[in-house]
Each structure stands twice: as C-alpha cells, then as structure tokens.
Amino acid sequence: MVKIPISLEFFPPKTPEGVAKLAAARAELYALEPEFCSVTYGAGGSTQNGTLAAVQAILGEGRSGAPHITCIGASRATVGGLLDTYRAAGITRLVALRGDLPSGAGSFGEFRYASELIEQIRQHSGSHFRIEVAAYPETHPQARSPEADLKAFAAKVAAGADAAITQMFFNADAYFRFVDEVRALGISVPIVPGIMPITNSSGLMRFADNCGCEIPRWMRLRLQSYGDDVKSIRAFGLDVMTALCERLISEGVPGLHFYTMNQAGPTVELCRRLEHRVA
Ligand SMILES: Cc1cc2nc3c(=O)[nH]c(=O)nc-3n(C[C@H](O)[C@H](O)[C@H](O)COP(=O)(O)OP(=O)(O)OC[C@H]3O[C@@H](n4cnc5c(N)ncnc54)[C@H](O)[C@@H]3O)c2cc1C
Q: For 5-48, how does the pLDDT look when each residue is reduced to its tens digit (9 = 90+)?
C-alpha cells in the first residue's frame, strides 16, 4: 500500500475564541502526523502578527510550522526584517507568494512577481529556508496564457523554490497535464496537490470562481440541488474528494496539502477514508 506525506494549511484567527478553536483543531489533526503545518498571510500585512503567533504555537507543539509570506505592496526592507524575525523564531520553511492586492488598495510595491520574492529570500537568507511556491494546474486567472503561466512557474523554481503546492482543483487530468508540462521543461521539484475538503456549496463556488478553479458542471448542479442541506453537501463532497485523492495517490503524487479552513472534522474524515494511504 502506498503511503504519502500530508501537510495542513490554516489561517490566522482574529479573535481569542478563534485561537482556542484552532488549537483544538490542530490537536485533533496532529493524529494525521502532518509533515508540516502552514499558516496563511494576508497580503498587505494585515494578519502578519497572527501568522507568526500561529506558527509559534505550532512550533511550541513540537511540529514543523511554515508561515506564508507575500510580497505584493511590500518593500525589500520589510521582507528582510520579516525573514530575520522568522529565522530568529526557529522557522526553517516558508510558503512564498505574490499575494493579491485587497480591492481598491494601493500599489504593487517593490516586487511584481513571486519569483522576485524568492530571489530576495535566497539573497537575504541563503539556503536557510525551504521554500514552497504556488502552482496552478488550471492556470492562474491573471496569466496572459497557460504557456506564460508555466514560464512564471519555471522562473520561481529557477529563483530557488524547492517545491510547489497547487491551487485547489477538482480535475485530476489538469493536474497531471501540468506536471507533465513542468517535467518537460526539465523541472523536477515536487508538485503537491492542494486539497479543499467540501463543506458547503455557495462559499466553495465563490472561492473557486475567484481563484480560477473549475467546478465541473455535474458537481455544480449536484451542489446547487442540495440547497441548504449541509449533510448531503458534506456526504457528496466527501465521496468526490475521496475519489479525487484516491486517483491522485494511485498515480503517484508526492503528497497532499489540505486546506483545512481551521476545521479538523472534514480533513480527518477524508484522511480516514484514505486510511493506509496517507502517513
Ligand atoms: C498554496 C497557496 C497558498 C496561498 N497562500 C496565500 C496567502 O497566504 N496569502 C495570500 O495573500 N495569498 C495566498 N495565495 C494566493 C496567491 O497569492 C494568489 O494566487 C496570487 O494571485 C498569485 O500568487 P503567486 O505567488 O502564484 O504569484 P506569481 O507566481 O507571481 O504569479 C502571479 C501572476 O503573474 C504572472 N507572472 C509571473 N511572473 C511573470 C512575469 N515575469 N511576466 C509576466 N507575468 C508573470 C503569472 O502567470 C500569474 O498570472 C495562495 C495560493 C496558493 C496556491
């Protein structure tokens, strides 16, 4: 039986109740023995302190923690300062992204693309950090073309990325094609599928539309047909995601990265269905 590593993603809670809920979710999720836990970072720095605090809690629990770091709207000096803070906190792994400007918000700052951030991390901190970057099997929504997006991905690896985590997707063929195209460029870094457990319908559709993830028509219609029936949505979602993960695992993915949305139940349940296949 194939066993593959998993990783977990959280977002920084904004309230003391959220902090306590996340701690409880992590305690349950650690039974899955994640290789590392990452914490998102609000572009523009709004959740910077929350990100560090959550990663410090993870490190304090004896687990590997990776803050996300974004560069949009940032300066080289602030990025350098943040890298020093992370290093001093004992952090050795980062998820490096461009980020998105909040709507109506200011300028790009000193970085235009994630590849420039990765160059800066390598210049500033050498090989101290293991760097994961984002990958888009269905093409980033702002890319000029799929080929341009593939080149942008290659540039991030050339700048020093060690591995990639994909945007969520429901179409395994898009993932495998993307990996084939990356390999054809001679790039061998692991490309770990990002897995979004399905827990609701309208939020998922909104998020998918925003980030350029296609929800196949048959899935969308099914989800819509359940209306507010959360139990049916979850049962259907669990079946769909189990089938997707089973296929990804059987075709040799290097790991699975779960977008937990700070909830233990959906990810634990999905991994239980994949029992003996995830480590
Ligand atoms: C796993 C994962 C985690 C994420 N975590 C966060 C988070 O914590 N905080 C957050 O704010 N956002 C997060 N995001 C969202 C991410 O910031 C957005 O998707 C953002 O729009 C792109 O980030 P990127 O790092 O992929 O950017 P880039 O790789 O810079 O790509 C952005 C766009 O620019 C294009 N491009 C890149 N280089 C060039 C070039 N040289 N010339 C022309 N075009 C180019 C690309 O094709 C793409 O369209 C995450 C996404 C993923 C998949």
A: 999 999 999 999 999 999 999 999 999 999 999 999 986 555 67
Query: Which atom of ligand 1 lies closest to the CA of 113?
Result: 30
For residue 99, being part of any structural domain is answered with yes
Q: Is 51 in the pocket of ligand 1 (CB under 6 A)?
A: no
Cα torsion 51, 23, 34, 137: sign: negative
CATH number (domain holding residue 266): 3.20.20.220
Residue 143 tokens, joined: 């890319």
The domain of 41 spans 6-273
Q: In degrees rounded to 5, what are phi and psi of residue 97?
A: -135, 160
Q: Which of 131, 128, 126, 93 is nearest to 114 (CA)?
A: 131
Q: What is the pLDDT of residues 190-204, one digit of tens each?
A: 999 999 999 999 999
Determine if the pTM surpasses 0.85. Answer: yes
